[in-house]
Design goal:
By secondary structure, the chain is mostly helical. The chain has 2 domains: 83 residues, no CATH class; 81 residues, Rossmann fold, CATH 3.40.50. Helices cover 43% and strands 10% of the residues. A 3-stranded parallel β-sheet has the order 3-5-4, with helices on both faces. Strand 4, helix 6 and strand 5 form a beta-alpha-beta unit. The longest helix has 15 residues. It is globular. The chain starts with a strand and ends in an 11-residue tail after the last helix. Keywords: ATP-binding, Helicase, Hydrolase, Initiation factor, Nucleotide-binding, Protein biosynthesis. InterPro entries: P-loop_NTPase.
């Protein structure tokens, strides 16, 4: 498990990341996100979640790697939801995934953890109907989760504004 972060000293050999004693409130997550996390039965910050959330505060690119796919998706969802301004119903996040099934799984995590934020996302893949994708985007979504080909197609026809995309 590793998160790149040389600039801020996030090296597993420098610290013992298995002894994280922070709460989600300590990390500075908003109350609605914290409520969504707790509502999903997550009560303790994992080392990967802590490192991902702290790295996301630096505004530098970073990489989330883990053999635990569930923890990786939860961590990514938390980072994305931390950055989203829920009152602004425009695309603020684009998540590229390898397949329709992975897009559905990722959407499940984002919607579940972001339940109290009233987050909306759209799954956009070759398997979904592009007219439906366009309707959902026009109605307002915070995050688009899709395959590279479909997201490229949507960008090519200017289906959504990228000026607010943070992640």
């Amino acid at each position: 498990m590793s998160v790149a972060g040389n600039e801020i000293g996030l090296h597993s050999e420098d610290t013992n990341w298995n002894e994280i004693d922070f709460t989600f409130e300590d990390i500075g997550l908003n109350d609605d996100l914290v409520n969504g996390i707790y509502a999903n039965g997550i009560s303790k910050v994992t080392p990967l979640q802590f490192r991902s959330l702290m790295a996301s505060k630096t505004k530098h690119d970073f990489l989330i790697r883990s053999t635990n796919v569930n923890d990786m998706r939860v961590s990514l969802s938390m980072v994305i939801l931390r950055l989203i301004e829920a009152r602004t119903e425009q695309c603020q996040s684009v998540i590229l995934v390898s397949s329709h099934d992975v897009a559905l799984e990722m959407a499940k995590y984002v919607l579940s953890l972001g339940e109290y934020m009233s987050v909306k996302c759209s799954v956009c893949t070759a398997t979904t109907n592009i007219a439906e994708d366009l309707r959902e985007i026009r109605d307002g979504v915070h995050s688009i989760i899709g395959t590279p080909g479909r997201v490229y197609d949507l960008l090519a026809i200017a289906a959504f504004d990228t000026s607010l995309v943070k992640t």
